[in-house]
Design goal:
Strand content: 15-25%
Shape: globular
Mean pLDDT: 80
CATH superfamily: Vaccinia Virus protein VP39
Order of helices and strands: EEEEEHHHEEHEEHEHHEHHEH
Number of domains: 1
Number of strands: 12
Strand order of the largest sheet: 8-7-6-9-10-12-11
CATH architecture: 3-Layer(aba) Sandwich
CATH class: Alpha Beta
Structural class: alpha/beta
Number of helices: 10
Distance between the termini: 90 Å
Radius of gyration: 27 Å
């Protein structure tokens, strides 16, 4: 393994089109250690621990902000590493049905923007759920960023878009300011401790009029499993610990994006319900997705009696003919970096229509209808004249 120190310099890495390319865009990655693995096309780029920490602190710390330390990021990295290897040696991609679905939906949202993006970063790319749906007429090049190197090595790529793989922690983004056109994140940011700081880092990395398009699990995700585990553990053990990680609410996410400096926000919710035979299959699939709990307050184990009781409670309270339902609330969001060319709200007092005239709307509607009827009558009259006086052919 050969290690090179980089500081504002371009480097030659392996491009996933079987050719060597000098990544000029690496000028927008700073304070990095590049790790090249012989015989592998994976290039791992991680930030210097001291420099990355200071960079994040300058980017995200405000007096009114309280940086929460809810998630064990080391445990989450291990979860993703194990998910990349497969739980029992089977094809690990069988657990990607939710992330594949919303990765496709995010790529469809990118298509709705009438612009070709030069530099795109897929933050928390997983197995390439978004990147594999991108095409050359949409983007010029893509950087797939993932916390787990093993999962990153399995990430699918687009067949006609140059793609580069970079191991990056979402909490310490190493990108230079004003260097990225589009940042996309699919079901990854809900595991970030300092979400306000992460959003500010993304905003600084984006170019003016750059856009962030993402999705993350909302607060109603897995509420059936949460309630069942709490009731069972309370009854069997006299108390309960959090087994489902806390998620962000829609209002909180909107406020965070606004406070971070994003404009022209678009936020909507998708509700997905998946049926499972029992609670145990649901928990097994969550482990395969690397979506198991990693909060610091989690218990090291869940007692057998409590699990059996929780499965019974789940089936009794929520069960149906298809088994048990599991709800996944996904918050989709789009935010733009401010730019003078963007449309802005009209200045106060510049309106030309008064709300006092709202009582005249019925009168105006009737006048418009009369004008349309008169235009229709004129058209019919003209057609009648043309039929009665046909043009003679020579």
């Amino acid at each position: 393994m050969h290690v090179h120190k980089m500081l504002f310099k371009a480097s030659t890495v392996t491009c996933h089109h079987s050719c060597q390319r000098t990544i000029g865009c690496l000028l927008h990655i700073k304070h990095l250690t590049v790790v090249r693995c012989d015989g592998s096309s994976l290039v791992s780029i991680t930030g210097s621990r001291i420099l990355g920490h200071n960079f994040c602190r300058r980017m995200s710390t405000r007096q009114q902000d309280v940086i929460m330390n809810v998630f064990d990021r080391k445990a989450k990295r291990l979860h993703r590493e194990r998910a990349a290897l497969g739980l029992t040696g089977e094809d690990a991609t069988v657990y990607d049905y939710i992330k594949d679905e919303f990765g496709y939906r995010l790529s469809d949202r990118i298509c709705d923007i009438r612009r070709k993006f030069e530099v795109v970063v897929d933050l928390g790319c997983g197995r390439g759920h978004v990147t594999k749906n991108l095409y050359a007429d949409m983007v010029d090049r893509v950087y797939q960023c993932e916390l787990s190197p093993s999962l990153l090595s399995q990430a699918a790529i687009s067949p006609d878009v140059p793609t580069f793989k970079v191991a990056v922690d979402e909490e310490f983004l190493p990108f230079k300011a004003n260097s990225i056109d589009l940042m996309v994140s699919n079901l990854s940011l809900h595991w970030v401790n300092n979400l306000p700081g992460c959003l500010r880092q993304i905003l600084q990395a984006l170019k003016n009029d750059g856009v962030l398009i993402g999705s993350m699990f909302g607060s109603d995700t897995l509420h059936e499993l949460r309630v069942s585990l709490q009731l069972a553990e309370q009854e069997r053990e006299g108390g309960f610990a959090p087994h489902i990680s806390p998620f962000t609410t829609v209002n909180d996410l909107g406020n965070l994006l606004t406070r971070s400096g994003f404009t022209m926000l678009t936020i909507d919710i998708d509700q997905l319900v998946v049926s499972y035979p029992s609670m145990f299959e649901l928990m097994y699939d969550l482990k395969g997705m690397a979506e198991n709990n990693c909060s610091w307050s989690r218990k090291s184990q869940l007692h057998r009696d409590s699990m059996i009781a929780a499965a019974a409670v789940y089936k009794e309270m929520y069960g149906n003919d298809k088994g048990i339902p599991a709800s996944f609330q996904v918050i989709n969001f789009i935010g733009w970096k401010p730019d003078p060319s963007q449309p802005k709200a009209a200045e106060r007092g510049s309106g030309e229509v008064s709300l006092k005239d709202i009582d005249r709307i019925d009168l105006l509607t009737k006048k418009i209808q009369q004008i349309r009827e008169e235009q229709t009558d004129l058209t019919k009259t003209d057609n009648t004249k043309q039929k009665s006086d046909p043009v003679k052919e020579d």
